[in-house]
Amino acid sequence: MGAIGTVRAGRAIMATLLAGAMVTLAACGGDDDGKKDEKATKAAPQTPGSTPAADTKPLKGTVTVFAAASLTETFTALGKQFEAAHPGVTVKFNYGGSSALAASINQGAPADVFASADEKNMKLVTDGKSADGTPTAFAKNTLQIAVAPGNPKNVKSLADLKQDGLKVAQCAPQVPCGAAAKTALDAGGVKFTPSTLEQDVKAALTKLTLGEVDAALVYRTDVKAAGAKVVGVDFPESAQAVNTYPIVPLAKAPNADAAKAFVAFVLAEPGRTALTAAGFQAP
Amino acid sequence: MIGSPRVRRRVRAERPRRGGAPLALLVPGLIGLVFLVLPLIGLLIRAPWSDLGSQLGSTEVREALKLSLFTATAATGIVLVLGVPLAWLLARTDFPGRRLVRALVTLPLVLPPVVGGVALLLVLGRRGIVGEWLDDTFGYTLPFTTTGVIVAEAFVAMPFLVISVEGALRAADPRYEEAAATLGASRWTAFRRVTLPLIAPGVAAGAVLAWARALGEFGATITFAGNFPGKTQTMPLAVYLALETDPEAAIVLSLVLLAVSVLILAGLRERWMTTS
């Protein structure tokens, strides 16, 4: 090959690298699907300057809510009610692991409201001076073992997850549901190796509904929201790992008025009923 | 046989230099350069240099790096074994629907990797079309295994190699193969002894691209293979998850990935791009 190989390879590499670079750019755009906040960032509101006349100004524009994945169903329904109550407002949601949401808020993601699935990740936001005021607890949640309908592997307790060959999906330890799972497992003295540590609770549940795992440690509200697709198994250790959900309007909220109104909406009556119906406990 | 391309190459290499670059190209070109290089500089500036050693020594980083290097290399191996013949079929044979097949082969290039991961689950997952059979027959499942990571990486990386090799094949002069055939070589011998050495640079370039793509794979891996340290948590997954709790660790992990990429490119340059 010698000199020819050398030169030709150089050119081939450069040419392919150039072509590849363009394609990779497109492919990387796809990667972002994993990081859900990207979309929300793009969809973020260009706040139409709310009318300065301070009286009874109607809310308008978009309010962007970053909420824990376990709130998906409840908040989506509440968002529709909020839009109905405030015709000028569009509610946009970005659901994900609370830790990922907290990180992107502290990095300056233009969000109006943050609802976390635990106090630890909310603290990241308050410590990062990203919250407007003190967060308010609005719900409590506990874990269940989700299994396929009919419970084919006969999982009755936390210790049953140790069964040989049983595949279990758990949340990553930095995500609230993962932290809660760890607390519950420690409390019960149960040790096993899960198949995967997912980045949020819905991802863990999806692995179960797809049939890739036999059990998933998720919130009871997720089991309820999944309907007939999964069954929940209670276990006593879950009482040791109760998550409190706080909500707060954000300091750099592009739409501060709507942010406060949405938080009030969740804390007050429409929110209470919806949260209770979804299986959340009162804080 | 080899003399004539060398002469051609020399002639082409000695093009006359032209005057300075026009502003219309220079300005956007420089902006493009800054755009590409600035994020890398940002990574270097924000790196926690003082405790770099302890971060690098952590088992998490070492496990992820080892896993990434292993899976990317294994995926490149698969891609070479399957991709080169596929490229040959596309470049050297004619069959109905060849253009459609070619389009399908390049699809993973533009497909969001997460979608690729979902598709892999539906086929190779425990309830997938092929996966269910694998599970029933051999009691073997791919998701959540290191093999699953390799499969996901090979899936997204293969098109890079196929495109590169197919291009090299089309550019290679078929008369060499024809000459080999007239001298009595079978098509397989001609491929092995004449075509393959001829397109070796294209294969190498494609393999490097495929390896790099596999190393950076995120979406298909986390969707199909899940995330567990030491087993399926590759560097990009570790970076993503570390960013949420320990941004400094994420920066260190990113630096390691960056260093690996630079080393590979530099190594290739030494080997293939230095010309006298």
TrEMBL record, chain A:
UniProt GO cellular component terms: plasma membrane
PANTHER family per UniProt: MOLYBDATE-BINDING PERIPLASMIC PROTEIN, SULFATE-BINDING PROTEIN
Protein name per its UniProtKB record: Molybdate-binding protein ModA
Entry keyword Ribosomal protein: no
Role noted for this protein: Involved in the transport of molybdenum into the cell. Part of the binding-protein-dependent transport system ModABCD.
InterPro entries: ModA (IPR005950), ModA/WtpA (IPR050682)
Amino-acid positions noted as binding molybdate in the UniProt annotation, renumbered to this chain: 70, 98, 201, 219
Gene Ontology molecular function: any one: metal ion binding
Disordered: annotated span: 32-57
One Pfam family from the record: SBP_bac_11
Source organism (scientific name): Embleya hyalina
GO biological process, one term: molybdate ion transport
Membrane-related topology note: Lipid-anchor
Similarity field: Belongs to the bacterial solute-binding protein ModA family.
Family matches, as NCBIfam families: modA (TIGR01256)
Transmembrane is among the record's keywords: no
Basic and acidic residues composition bias: residue spans: 32-41
Coiled-coil region list: none
Subcellular location: Cell membrane
Signal peptide location: 1-26
Keyword terms of this UniProt record: Cell membrane, Membrane, Metal-binding, Molybdenum, Signal, Transport, Tungsten
Subunit structure, as described in the record: The complex is composed of two ATP-binding proteins (ModC), two transmembrane proteins (ModB) and a solute-binding protein (ModA).
Location, primary (coarse class): membrane
Automatic annotation (TrEMBL), chain B:
Database matches in Gene3D superfamilies: MetI-like (1.10.3720.10)
Family in the record: Belongs to the binding-protein-dependent transport system permease family. CysTW subfamily.
Entry keyword annotation includes Membrane: yes
A GO CC term attached to the entry: plasma membrane
PANTHER family named in the record: MOLYBDENUM TRANSPORT SYSTEM PERMEASE PROTEIN MODB (PTHR30183)
Entry-linked InterPro entries: MetI-like, MetI-like_sf, ModB_ABC, NifC_ABC_porter
Domain ABC transmembrane type-1: 65-266
Native species: Embleya hyalina
Membrane topology (UniProt): Multi-pass membrane protein
Subcellular location: Cell membrane
The keyword Transport is annotated on this UniProt entry: yes
Gene Ontology molecular function, alphabetical: molybdate ion transmembrane transporter activity
Role noted for this protein: Part of the binding-protein-dependent transport system for molybdenum; probably responsible for the translocation of the substrate across the membrane.
Record NCBIfam families: Mo_ABC_porter, modB_ABC
Entry protein name: Molybdenum transport system permease
Pfam families: BPD_transp_1
Keywords for this protein: Cell membrane, Membrane, Molybdenum, Transmembrane, Transmembrane helix, Transport
Sequence intervals crossing the membrane: 21-47, 67-91, 103-124, 144-165, 194-212, 249-268
